[in-house]
Amino acid sequence: MGTWRQMSKKAQAGQLERDGVPWHPPSGSWASSQGNRRSMVGNRSRDTKPELALRSLVHAAGLRYRVAQRPLPEIRRSVDLVFGPAKVAVFVDGCFWHGCPEHYVPPKTNPDYWNSKIGGNVVRDRDTDAKLEAAGWLVLRFWEHEDPASASEEVVRTVVQRRARASGPRAPRT
């Protein structure tokens, strides 16, 4: 299979070809342009810069966690940082993908698709929160634009408190 390469004559139009055949969006594709599709396919679902910054600070504070794990096997949703014994689930939500009230700007191209997509993400987030909380988990959500230092302080404080409560008072040894 060939690789995508820039077409010399159409480089400024941003069109790609593979093995000499110009790219066309698949039938029913959400991509309004080839550049848009290439950009969206390149977006990460995990290990984003805000997530890595938070993980680094939490790790430096001495806490250990699981990454991109499903805390409830019966639902197909993963959590960015999972503190299993303390039952704390931490999400770092992207402003675009999760409809940040401060930064989300609806796209002008294909607005019906994107309004439905982002709205569905928000509904799924609330459903995930409810299911985790019903199973005894504490959910912490942070926006990608939030300061990682203050977010990590909140995560560390919450996990340490939950661990202390879970261990409970110890009986004196005799």
Explain this structure to me?
The chain is elongated, with a radius of gyration of 21 Å. Helix 2 (49-60) crosses helix 4 (148-167). It has 174 residues and is α+β, with helices and mostly antiparallel strands. The protein has a four-stranded mixed β-sheet with strand order 4-5-6-7, with helices on both faces. Strands 1-2-3 form a three-stranded antiparallel β-sheet, with no helix packed on it. The longest helix has 24 residues, at 111-134. It has helices at residues 34-41, 49-60, 111-134, 148-167; strands spanning 4-6, 16-18, 21-22, 66-69, 79-83, 88-93, 138-143. The protein starts with a strand and ends in a 7-residue tail after the last helix. Strand 2 (16-18) and strand 3 (21-22) form a beta hairpin. 16% of the residues are buried. Helices cover 37% and strands 17% of the residues.
Which structural category fits the helices and strands?
alpha+beta
**SS strand fraction:** 15-25%
How are helices and strands ordered from N to C? Answer: EEEHHEEEHEH
Care to count the β-strands? 7
Distance between the termini: 72 Å
Rg measurement, Å: 21 Å
Instruction: Bin the helical content.
Output: 25-40%
Number of helices: 4
Summarize the biggest pleated sheet: 4 strands, mixed
* Strand order across the largest sheet: 4-5-6-7
The poorly predicted ranges are 1-14
The mean pLDDT is: 84
Mass-distribution shape = elongated
